[in-house]
Amino acid sequence: MVGEEGAFVLGWDEVLTEEELSMTLKVLCMSEEEFKEYKDQDGWEDDSEEEENSTLSNEALSRLKTPCKKLLYDSVLLTLESYGADLKAEQDLLNNKEAYEKLSRREQQALHVRYGQKRILHQLLELVQ
Q: What is the mean pLDDT of the chain?
């Protein structure tokens, strides 16, 4: 369901791997009975037309059912914990010209990538609170 890397791709405005995330949330938020019924009916391939046409925009994420929002929220927190520094530390480093210039070009680029990733994750936290 999640693909080879086991990760979802989030953008500023929407989920870029929306089909995978939507299906994963649907399955993980099912009760055992609902999952058995879904599996028995070969539900993996036959989702409703409404679900196929929906997108996981930021607005749609904020309207998810509470169990799905909680699952996303907890997942984002775990992802943020996997980083060595928090968003504020990265922002402070970006704002400290002297310290930033001491970084190699590669370290500067990595800092910008991490900072962008963390900003998107924090935005997602706000959407699913």
A: 85
Q: Which residue has the tokens 């989920």?
A: 15
Does residue 10 lie within any of the structural domains? no
Question: Around Cβ 129, how many Cβ atoms within 10 Å?
Answer: 9
* Residues of the chain predicted below pLDDT 70: 1-6, 43-55
DSSP letter for 109, please.
H
Q: Give residue 95's domain range.
A: 18-128
| Burial of residue 23, with CB atoms counted within 10 A of its CB: 0-12 exposed, 13-18 middle, 19 or more buried | middle
Cα 44 to its chain centre, rounded Å, is: 22
Does residue 30 sit within a domain?
A: yes
Report the number of distinct structural domains present in the chain: 1
- Which pLDDT value is given to residue 49? 46
Distances 33 to 44, 47, 68 between C-alpha atoms, Å: 16, 18, 17
What is the chain's alpha carbon radius of gyration, rounded to the nearest angstrom?
18
Residue with tokens 């929407």: 14
Asked whether residue 3 is assigned to any structural domain, the reply reads no
